[in-house]
Amino acid sequence: MLHEKGATAISGWFNGATQGVQMDSLLYKANASGIPRVDAFLWIQGESDESTTSPSYLRSWDSIKTVLRRQSYFPATTPIIGVGMPQLAFGSQGGFQG
User: Can you tell me the distance from the alpha carbon of 56 to that of 39, in angstroms, rounded to the nearest whole number?
Assistant: First the structure.
């Protein structure tokens, strides 16, 4: 299953603890497809978050992972691979430009 939406900030997926429209769309598509399980989750995102602080980004990223892990088709063994967010993932306080 492919779910893609270009040039979207993480807040479209989760804004802190508030689930966003992109996350709703992904869950709807996965549930409607009837997939038995997700083999891997690849997250390529971040260019639209240059002004997002590390704590804010990581709070949203953790919320995304928590919701995914609660799905019956997303076992704990499913790898979650994040690409495109290295500065925020490693604690830069200034976003991607900082």
Answer: 28
